[in-house]
Amino acid sequence: MDQPRRFAFTLKRLILLLALVSTLIILLSSYLAIFQVERKLLIDSSLRASQSYAARLSLTADLFFNAAQKQLVFSAGLLGEEFDNLYAIAEEADRLQIQSKRYSSVLVVDKSGVVRAASRNSANMTGLRLVSDANTQALTTQNPVISSPFRTAQNNHIIAMSVPIRNTRGKYLGYLVAEITLQQGGIIDSLINARNYRKDAYIYVIDNEGDVLYRAADGWTESTPQGNVNKALLEGRDQGFLHMKNLQGEDSLAGFSTMEISGWTVLVLHPARADVVLLYQVMLQVLIYTLPFVILVFIVIWLLARYISRPLRQLASKADTMDSQDVSAEIQQINAWYYEASKLKSVMLQGIRLLHQRIEKLSTQAHTDPMTGLLNRRGLYEQVDKLLGEESQIGVVTLDIDHFKVINDTFGHDVGDAVITQLSRLILGNSRDDDLLCRMGGEEFLLLLPGTSLTRAVQLAERLRRQVAGQNFEGAGNVTISLGVTHFNPAKVNIDSALKSADKALYQAKNDGRNRVVSR
Ligand SMILES: Nc1nc2c(ncn2[C@@H]2O[C@H](COP(=O)(O)OP(=O)(O)OP(=O)(O)O)[C@@H](O)[C@H]2O)c(=O)[nH]1
């Protein structure tokens, strides 16, 4: 069963992770910075727009009040001259109302608060005693007054604009008052309305105490506005902008401007969340525009991470096969294009060289006999396979020193060693490069002779025997050897049985009196 592959922190993944995390942090922080800057810009611009709209409205209202006041002052001058002529003052009141159309009614009031004359549409008020605060204010101040809104007996929501009437000697006779309706369609409504501004905006007009006189939004005007705006929010400024809650309790941004003549303040409010919604749209756009670049950056980072990590990844994969023969050549192929990788590559190559030398040394030690330098039994089996595959006939000679125990016992072990070494050199001197010569153990040797017939193997064995017998061995004098010879075809006969056969021949040579060659 396949083991599930464990996640590994490779260099490529680490570079990718690092790059991704840092890119994301940079992106997020820039995104947040853009968000903050955009938010401030949007809020600022929307506050400024509201404030300039409020300023325009209050200027328009100021121009109206100014013109209206001048008109009333002019008429009051005429009325002062003809105050006793009831017909004339009623005509003037009517003329004013018809001409201006701004006024719902025009009244001439005497100094006791009784309506002396009225425009035709309010003729029924003639003779009535007025009791409103506006009346009291006009009579007590004897100055031009713009009243706070109030409800008339006919339930009209109005403000009253009055100017004093004096005769030619300056004596106070009463006042001329024009009533201006606040209801939808009235003059204030047509001056101050939300129709030309953003749809979510509210227009408030507040008086000096902060009481809401007028409230309108897109398409509607409140007939009896209630509520109070804390004037402390305006911080004594004539115009500016502020954050506040509207009368529904929503967080709102407001621009304001105060009228000169009435002292009323126009507030233009809109809910703050509208700008936030706009901001989210802007941020979404930013995201959409930046996304392709972000993806491109990630792809570039991914390719770079691959390119940077490739030499190290390839070197790391070769670390698993450092004992293989071809690994050095494979490592040479790796493009270690930067300092650390190239350093690692050269250290690995050096390490592999040393490792292979060491392995070779160990292998040689394991396969050779240290005393004679010949192959040992393991070394023979290691190399014989090649020989067996290539040859159709192999001569086998096995040889053993005669009475070697006596040599040891007589001359000592060192002399025995020297005899073995000298014999091995002699055998080597009689063999070809292709021959496999092996010290099988003790004083026993084996010769495998590739491509050699039995006859030639016997000839070689005989030559060896004679040479040994004729040689003087240092410290031991004359030494003889016995040899067993055989021959086999590796395709047909197993090497072990061939060796056994050679051993038998050797055994027979020993039995037959030693210092001889026996073949089988
Ligand atoms: N000096 C020395 N002696 C060895 C070495 N290896 C084996 N011997 C000795 O070789 C001797 C072999 O003795 P045996 O097997 O009885 O044979 P032999 O005395 O040669 O008698 P035959 O083979 O029957 O002629 C033993 O005494 C071993 O101790 C070696 O590396 N050096």
What is shown here, in short?
This protein has 520 residues and is α+β, with helices and mostly antiparallel strands. It is built from twelve helices and 19 strands.
**Major sheet: size, sense and barrel closure?**
6 strands, antiparallel
Strand content: 15-25%
Total count of domains? 3
| Ligands bound, unique | guanosine-5'-triphosphate
CATH topology of the largest domain: Beta-Lactamase
The CATH architecture of the largest domain can be given as 2-Layer Sandwich
Polypeptide structure, described:
The structure is a single chain. The chain has helices spanning 11-81, 86-100, 133-141, 187-191, 272-319, 327-333, 339-367, 377-390, 404-411, 413-429, 454-470, 495-511; strands spanning 105-110, 115-118, 145-146, 150-151, 157-166, 172-181, 202-206, 212-217, 220-221, 239-245, 251-258, 265-271, 394-401, 436-441, 444-450, 472-473, 477-478, 481-488, 517-519. By secondary structure, it is an alpha+beta fold. It folds into three domains: 44-283, PAS domain (Beta-Lactamase); 327-360, no CATH class; 377-519, Reverse transcriptase/Diguanylate cyclase domain (Alpha-Beta Plaits, 2-Layer Sandwich), CATH 3.30.70. Strands 1, 2, 3, 4, 5 and 6 form a six-stranded antiparallel beta sheet that branches. Strand 4 (150-151) and strand 5 form a beta hairpin. The longest helix has 71 residues, at 11-81. The protein is rod-shaped, with a radius of gyration of 62 Å. It starts with 10 loop residues before the first helix and ends with a strand. 32% of the residues are buried. Bound molecules: guanosine-5'-triphosphate (GTP). The site of guanosine-5'-triphosphate has 15 residues, from strand 13, helix 9 and helix 10.
